[in-house]
């Protein structure tokens, strides 16, 4: 079982994750693209990485906007290192 991070640990990690927020026990970020196709391509790249990490985000898409939320189910829906790792991976896919 993954161990939840403390609020201080999460704040420290968010310093290297631009525009990610922590509220309601989740890390979240909105990503914007030029069009629907680019947004869907991003989602598909996330899917492959999430499968590799065996950690799956909540993904919500409307046209060119993708909203991602991360928490760890086996840690009671809290933020863990798994979420930080996947957030960093998602950032690398966006840049």
UniProtKB/TrEMBL annotation:
<dbReference type="Pfam" id="PF01329">
    <property type="entry name" value="Pterin_4a"/>
</dbReference>
<dbReference type="InterPro" id="IPR036428">
    <property type="entry name" value="PCD_sf"/>
</dbReference>
<keyword id="KW-0456">Lyase</keyword>
<dbReference type="GO" id="GO:0006729">
    <property type="term" value="P:tetrahydrobiopterin biosynthetic process"/>
</dbReference>
<comment type="similarity">
    <text>Belongs to the pterin-4-alpha-carbinolamine dehydratase family.</text>
</comment>
<dbReference type="GO" id="GO:0008124">
    <property type="term" value="F:4-alpha-hydroxytetrahydrobiopterin dehydratase activity"/>
</dbReference>
<protein>
    <recommendedName>
        <fullName>Putative pterin-4-alpha-carbinolamine dehydratase</fullName>
        <ecNumber>4.2.1.96</ecNumber>
    </recommendedName>
</protein>
<dbReference type="InterPro" id="IPR001533">
    <property type="entry name" value="Pterin_deHydtase"/>
</dbReference>
